[in-house]
């Protein structure tokens, strides 16, 4: 107890010294690093030595499990997170109701009938319609990309289209190839249906596979029929493509009970540390609490949720209170609708002019490398990036001080039109898409030390932006 007391006193002294540090012209901080270096070090040390994030993630994963929108498990997770933040002594802990879709997977299967009979490893795509009772049995045509689909012409009619588009391997310079491959999952079903396809199979979005299918959301276009669609494993996609390339007739039966039930009441979960001087100005950060109905939603995005909760707990445990309000939001329905994100932006529309920044973590809970923010479009954007670069540099001691071009995140995106600066936590995602949206996204894949550093990164950047003498950037005029 004495050690903790000493740490709290030391942290309070650091903050007091920081608040008394000299400021630059116009009240600005001329040396942000000097002002907050001690606070950053204290938060990083606390995250490394006293974090509860890993234990809490184990509860979320093992006791509650995957958390699809509309499910009883998501409701349990909402209640648990609210109770946990109350127990941590956070301010303003509450839930904000959101009506979410209830997509139900049901039983599903895919079986190769010709030229050999065997089951295929598959997962229906989120928001897909189901097949008729008994399934759909049809010949398969293979398209490597959308140009190849167009070239198939009338041969698509009455067939099942397989998009066998490999996802490029992770590259340290350019990142993952997810952005190149994801259009085939999201819009591929409608594009094939518009040409007469009766169903669609998509090669799973991963560069590394152990015959594990990867699900994910599709988006039906208004001007095309809705056909059932499923992901199959990389290995099975390659096998079907080999059969087709050899000139053999490939026939698959796809059976899916997928359907939507009535919308269900759910909620975003909110907790905060009220600002000491300007509580009406807000820095919001968090992740999405929902997941797909496979695995445990550990990296996507349970780890980010508990890291954001832990960031506020650590700040409060050190006796720190920023000038502005630091708010954690755990959004719901990111995976198949973004209703939580839109509901938050709508409910807080009048306050968004006072949202100083929005920070999202949704790339897994791997080792943090820094943060991303959209490229500057004007002088305001340049000023924001320059100041944010100073803040993020406080994480240089743990190798997380990079600031790169990129997005903020899907859940904070609806706040962007109001001029709220968008910031995303950047992690080493070289392993992320090996398990993304699969049964393998489980607690054992999360490394405690990496998760703790994610909490530290969110705590440091969130606290400093909330406490800086000046806003990160002036609100748009």
Which helices and strands occur, and which strands form pairs?
Blueprint: H1 2-19, H2 32-50, H3 53-64, H4 72-87, E1 91-104, E2 108-114, E3 118-120, E4 122-124, E5 136-143, H5 146-152, E6 160-163, H6 178-186, H7 188-193, E7 199-203, E8 229-232, H8 234-245, E9 251-256, E10 259-273, E11 278-288, H9 298-317, E12 324-331, H10 339-347, E13 355-360, E14 368-373, H11 379-392, E15 402-405, E16 422-427, H12 432-435, H13 448-467
Parallel strand pairs: 5-6, 6-7, 7-8, 11-12, 11-13, 13-16, 14-15
Antiparallel strand pairs: 1-10, 2-3, 2-9, 4-8, 5-9, 10-12, 14-16
**Alpha carbon gap, first and last residue:** 50 Å
Total of domains = 2
Shape: elongated
- Radius of gyration equals 24 Å
Question: What oligomeric assembly is this protein in?
Answer: single chain
Number of strands: 16
> Which sequence of strands runs across the widest sheet?
1-10-12-11-13-16-14-15
> What is the highest CATH level, the class of the largest domain?
Alpha Beta
Q: SSE order, as H and E?
A: HHHHEEEEEHEHHEEHEEEHEHEEHEEHH
């Amino acid at each position: 107890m004495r050690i903790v007391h000493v740490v709290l006193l030391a942290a309070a002294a650091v903050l007091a010294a920081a608040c008394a540090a000299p400021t630059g012209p116009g009240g600005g901080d001329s040396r942000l690093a000097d002002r907050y270096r001690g606070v950053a070090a204290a938060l990083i040390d606390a995250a490394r030595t006293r974090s509860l994030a890993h234990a809490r993630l184990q509860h979320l994963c093992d006791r509650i499990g995957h958390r699809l929108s509309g499910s009883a498990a998501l409701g349990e997770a909402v209640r648990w997170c609210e109770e946990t933040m109350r127990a941590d002594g956070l301010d303003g802990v509450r839930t904000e109701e959101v009506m979410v879709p209830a997509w139900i997977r049901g039983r599903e299967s895919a079986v190769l009938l010709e030229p050999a009979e065997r089951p295929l490893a598959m997962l229906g795509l989120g928001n897909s319609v189901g097949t008729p009772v008994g399934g759909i049995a049809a010949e398969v045509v293979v398209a490597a990309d959308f140009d190849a689909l167009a070239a198939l012409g009338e041969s698509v009619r009455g067939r099942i289209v397989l998009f066998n588009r490999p996802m490029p391997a992770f590259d340290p310079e350019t990142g993952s190839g997810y952005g190149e491959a994801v259009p085939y999952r999201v819009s591929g079903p409608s594009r094939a249906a518009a040409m007469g396809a009766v169903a669609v199979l998509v090669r799973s979005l991963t560069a590394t596979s152990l015959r594990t299918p990867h699900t994910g959301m599709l988006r039906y276009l208004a001007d095309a029929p809705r056909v059932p669609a499923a992901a199959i494993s990389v290995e099975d996609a390659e096998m079907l493509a080999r059969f087709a390339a050899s000139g053999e007739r490939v026939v698959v039966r796809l059976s899916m009970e997928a359907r939507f039930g009535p919308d269900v009441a759910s909620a975003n979960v909110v907790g905060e540390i009220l600002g000491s001087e300007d509580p009406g100005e807000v820095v919001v950060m968090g992740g999405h609490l929902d997941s797909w109905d496979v695995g445990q939603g550990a990296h996507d995005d349970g780890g980010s949720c508990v890291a954001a909760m832990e960031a506020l707990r650590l700040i409060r445990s050190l006796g720190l209170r920023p000038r502005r309000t630091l708010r954690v939001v755990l959004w719901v329905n990111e995976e198949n609708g973004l209703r939580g994100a839109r509901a938050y932006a709508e409910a807080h529309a009048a306050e968004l002019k006072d949202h100083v920044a929005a920070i999202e973590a949704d790339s897994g809970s791997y080792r943090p490398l820094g943060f991303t923010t959209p490229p500057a479009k004007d002088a305001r954007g340049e000023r924001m990036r320059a100041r944010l670069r100073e803040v993020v540099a406080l994480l240089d001691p743990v190798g997380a001080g990079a600031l790169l071009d990129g997005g903020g995140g899907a859940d904070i995106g609806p706040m962007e039109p109001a001029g709220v600066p968008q910031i995303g936590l950047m992690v080493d995602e070289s392993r992320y898409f090996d398990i993304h949206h699969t049964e393998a996204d489980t607690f054992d894949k999360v490394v405690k030390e990496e998760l703790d550093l994610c909490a530290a990164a969110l705590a440091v950047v969130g606290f400093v932006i909330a406490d800086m003498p000046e806003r990160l950037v002036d609100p748009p005029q």
